[in-house]
Specification:
Elements (H helix, E strand, L loop, with lengths): L1 H30 L7 H27 L7 H30 L15 H26 L3 H10 L4
Helix pairs in contact: 1-2, 3-4
């Protein structure tokens, strides 16, 4: 069972990595068109990149990572998007919390590294690592396991 989870997690990393490449590539391509001067256009570009990345991650995860449940693809997609939005929120919260942690005197050495914005970069990487684990298990147990209703109904069952 653990070996299957490790293999599935490896596949998920490849799926999420491909989604990240699509997301970043699309955003960089659209920014080259010089639409970034308009804040609304800039936000739209970022949203388009995120949506494209989510679509790639969903399709690859559904095909190669997780076994499909009995729900229609659009219902799985809705669960997937909700989980993905929760990962975005969690990533932001964790990154800002880590920045605060790295501001403590114990981590003063980070500011002395020859890297611009070292604490922020390490905070981002830490948040990405933690959220990747959360994302994998959330998609495994929600997006591709019957959705939120199935999760809630399984928790509601009282066992002797």
């Amino acid at each position: 069972m653990l070996a299957l989870s490790v293999v599935a997690f490896g596949r998920y990393l490849v799926s999420a990595g491909a989604a990240t490449v699509v997301d970043v590539g699309l955003v960089q391509l659209l920014l080259a068109i010089s639409l970034a001067s308009n804040p609304l256009a800039y936000a739209g570009i970022i949203v388009l990149g995120a949506l494209a990345g989510m679509a790639v991650n969903f399709l690859l995860s559904r095909r190669f990572v997780f076994a499909a449940d009995s729900r229609a693809a659009h219902r799985q997609l809705l669960s997937f998007v909700l989980v993905s939005l929760s990962t975005l929120l969690l990533r932001l919260v964790l990154a800002f919390a880590l920045i605060q942690l790295f501001a403590l005197p114990l981590f003063g050495w980070l500011s002395n590294l020859p890297i611009d914005a070292a604490p922020e970069r390490f905070a981002h990487l830490g948040a990405v690592v933690v959220v990747t684990l959360y994302s994998f298990f959330a998609h495994k147990h929600v997006s591709f396991a019957g959705g939120v209703r199935a999760l809630l109904s399984s928790k509601a069952v009282v066992r002797p």
